[in-house]
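Page 37, top half.
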Amino acid sequence: TVHGGLGDDTCKGGAGIDEVNGDTGNDDCQGGENQGSEADFRASLTDANGQTVGAAEVQVEDNGATEFQVEVHGAAANTTFDVTIDVAGDGTNVVTVGQLVTNAEGEGELEVHDVANLPPLQDGVSVLHLTANPADPTKDLSGTFLAHTNDSGDELEAVLTDPADPNAPRIGQAELNSADGEFQVEVFGLAANTTYDIYVNGDASTGTLVGHVTTNDQGQGELELLTDASFPAVKVGSVITVADSAGTTVIQGTFGTGDDN
């Protein structure tokens, strides 16, 4: 079985009978006899302040095997999280998945094959919890799983530059795939260890705030979230802005198709 994970991947099954699945992201899957999943659930993780800092996915394969993945960016640094799934959403059936440990930048990842004792998830009900260990509720993360379908759709991309100085080293890129329900922003060359606001369909004054990105020591940062019906409508020509805490535009771009950008 070959899995691509939460990013953009090229998956090749090679010789023999292989199961190939790109998972979330923009993927090129080759050489697999089975490239789908029977059920796919995804969740965006938010912290105590409501900021989206991660994404998770649970896939149930045609043969009944389960694949669990979670990634966080900008969570509490150097922290161990107990990862559990509250299947019924009311605490009556909580399944332990494992532990995720973040690095000094608050980034971490956990992947588990065949989660033990995991019953079918419930769309819009089952909740993923990342609980700090030792206990510290201010660090906890959570998100509700939503069923996902793998219908094809248009992908939009944007290159982000400083509108006041397009040649400045402050740059970024954004991708939105409405079919996959995935929105991703990466920034480079910004001020180190700083949190920025991300707006779509305008700037801090005219747009809609959709998330935040926190840079590391090198001024790099990434936001990855899963969209739902509440996410603003974005189309070719829509503006995406990364702004500082004062609302000043730092970098900005316009969405187009992949060929346009």
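Page 37, bottom half:
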Amino acid sequence: MKAQKSIFLFILAIVAIIWTASAKEITPNAKIKTAFEKKFSNTRNVVWEKGTDGDFLASFDTEDGEVEAAFAKDGSWLYTKTEIWHETLPEVIQEYLEEEYADAMIMSTMTYEDPATTLEYILTLSIEEELEVEEEDWEQEVPEPTYLKLTFDEQGEFLSEETIDS
């Protein structure tokens, strides 16, 4: 038992060393930091990453939920995505979902905002086809669910529906 505990602690120490060595702390330039602090106050646990397009992504927590904000190298704000609980969606959106997608499962809900658009609510739903199984066909293949992306404006008006590849 003592040997197993020693081996476990040794492996844990190696993993910690490798993780620490591979983790590179990204520090954005002063323009980005200033723009971030101006746009987002009262943030905690901010983690910066470099995006694929050379932009900088800040991930952090707020009272509203988990947030990802993107900034260009020049400090200009690109967009903000905030994961939210579906129970906090405007009532008009919740009513729409009950009427149009009563059997769907809500996979994710977020708000999205960028300089060109006002706040939008984006939902991902999973819809499973009802399967009728014949007694003699127990080995029937179960179809994959359909995933939909629904977009609503700030007032809760439906804007679009898009099928997402699974």
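Margin note: The mean pLDDT is 82.
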